[in-house]
Amino acid sequence: IFVMSTEYTRFISVQRAHELLASGGNVHVLDTRTPEEFAEGHVPKAANVRECFTYLIPSTKKEGVEDLVATFTRVFSAAGLTNADDEVVLVYEDGMSTGFAQSCRTWFLLTLLGHKNAHVVNGGFHAWKLAKFDISTEIPPTASTSFKTDVQHHLLATVDDVKAVLAGQSNYILLDDRDKVEWIGASSSPYGIDFTPRKGRLHGAKWIEWYDYMEKDANGVWYMKNKQTITEMLARNGIGPDTHVICYCFKGSRASHTLLSLLECGVTHVRNYFGSWNEWSRDFDLPIDETKIEA
Predict the structure, then answer these.
(1) pLDDT tens digits for range 173-200
(2) CA dihedral of residues 97, 135, 42, 113 (deg, nearest 10)
(3) Which residues contact 129 (CB under 8 A, 6 or more apart)?
(4) Which end of the chain has fewer CB atoms surrounding its CB within 10 Å, N or C?
(5) DSSP 98-160
(6) Residue 163: what pLDDT?
(7) Cβ(245)–Cβ(18) under 8 Å?
(8) Is 109 within 8 Å of 101 (Cβ atoms)?
(9) What's the pTM?
(10) Are the CB atoms for 277 and 178 separated by under 8 Å?
């Protein structure tokens, strides 16, 4: 029997985040929101890393991955991170359902670059404010450091990895977690209906909308559902601890949320196709399923 801890480890509560910050340890906070939102008020000592959400990988070929690694080695160094063994990083966004999982994308980028102690604040800044914890408007000076990168290539799926799945040459399945309007082929992206030239989905992909991993509490704050509920939802979709999964969305952000959720629920063979629909749909040589699905 597969036994799973009921507690999250990569998602942490605002209470636990607050405790860690008060501990005086080597704890850093990253805020993924816009610079304007950040200036209006943020978790004390946070660094603003908006680029973790806005960046689009040029491609998942070798040069594109090199660009990603160079970009975020720079971003994390500028934010004062070193990837020291005792370094803890807490990442938050405004609300878990409102920013296309930008905090999870940041967690993924940290983890991809080798950080082993990054956490996403469950409930985001909404939950922090509700707990009435301190909010700062100071823009803290950040001493630029040198982030030690150790790329975990097994977490990243490339365009060639996806081609191998479609060709029946891989034991991975494809899991689409985009918003329903994208899955049914009514829109190409969150950036606009025709932001990319084609609409549809990858052939044979399963679909679990990323919102389905979360629920709203009585205060209107979105949190992760409990692990048991998510594990049962995955099982209904044929996904268990031994399933090999490649997640995709539009630009690897919502897919980071899904990857993180699956890892937390004991699905260990999971990869993020970071180029996702933005890369795939622009290459007309690559096949897509354009069948219209009724809303």
Answers:
(1) 999 999 999 999 999 999 999 999 999 9
(2) -90
(3) 135
(4) N
(5) TSTTHHHHHHHHHHHTT-S-EEEETTHHHHHHHTT---B----------------GGGEE-HH
(6) 98
(7) no
(8) no
(9) 0.96
(10) yes
